[in-house]
């Protein structure tokens, strides 16, 4: 049965009323958001708020319990394996720390998705890999092993790998984590350049407030299970929502709880049932 199609011309990805949780714990409670085509959308918010989970739902690694996750108008959650495989070929993903295969050199790391997903000739693979490496400034590093390059260079190789198949959508989870300020600036500039030059749509999950607010066209701030704010970086900075204010101004106190939900203090430390006084 074909997947039902919805018209959403300006949004490449759209979440509509998505509920999702792991085990008993609900992480997303009716989340709705839109990712406009051609733009960089940043998803930010407190740790554990479900940002990586949103990427997993879009990539089809998890399926929504309720609601729809639309990619180009089609519901990822309703796709069979073959449809999902085809949708995933249109996505590039760079997951947390974008680990490279340590036993493959830089060239082979970027060639990997091409070898996995296409039957291109060796000559074509070579041209594409060198083009992608050129785009991230590392054509000259093709023969180096991951152990021979810096963390910033490794991130750029991972970027090149995530665009190897010419995706329409690229998802980056924490692309700046662990980078020094110069490498971070380079990575941010690259994400912008690749997005604009290749006509991509980008979803970026990042904790780096300043870099992200500078880079993104649109920012979505997740509160517990919901969207706390959505808009341009300037709109989000000006938000009066207490959670957004706490987040944007990096305040240690506010609505974002310090404690992960669990048993109350009394339950854990109070008098135990049956314990001797
Ligand atoms: N595979 C899993 N099994 C069970 N619980 C999970 C799993 N993955 C994530 N969680 C829980 O789901 C919640 C959301 O996790 P997620 O990684 O999406 O948050 P996040 O906003 O990306 O966090 P961070 O910013 O710290 O990376 C957290 O409470 C986490 O403990």
From TrEMBL:
<dbReference type="InterPro" id="IPR027417">
    <property type="entry name" value="P-loop_NTPase"/>
</dbReference>
<keyword id="KW-0067">ATP-binding</keyword>
<dbReference type="InterPro" id="IPR017871">
    <property type="entry name" value="ABC_transporter-like_CS"/>
</dbReference>
<dbReference type="Pfam" id="PF00005">
    <property type="entry name" value="ABC_tran"/>
</dbReference>
<dbReference type="InterPro" id="IPR003593">
    <property type="entry name" value="AAA+_ATPase"/>
</dbReference>
<dbReference type="GO" id="GO:0005524">
    <property type="term" value="F:ATP binding"/>
</dbReference>
<keyword id="KW-0813">Transport</keyword>
<keyword id="KW-0547">Nucleotide-binding</keyword>
<keyword id="KW-0472">Membrane</keyword>
<protein>
    <submittedName>
        <fullName>ABC transporter ATP-binding protein</fullName>
    </submittedName>
</protein>
<dbReference type="InterPro" id="IPR003439">
    <property type="entry name" value="ABC_transporter-like_ATP-bd"/>
</dbReference>
<feature type="domain" description="ABC transporter">
    <location>
        <begin position="13"/>
        <end position="249"/>
    </location>
</feature>
<dbReference type="GO" id="GO:0016887">
    <property type="term" value="F:ATP hydrolysis activity"/>
</dbReference>
<keyword id="KW-1003">Cell membrane</keyword>
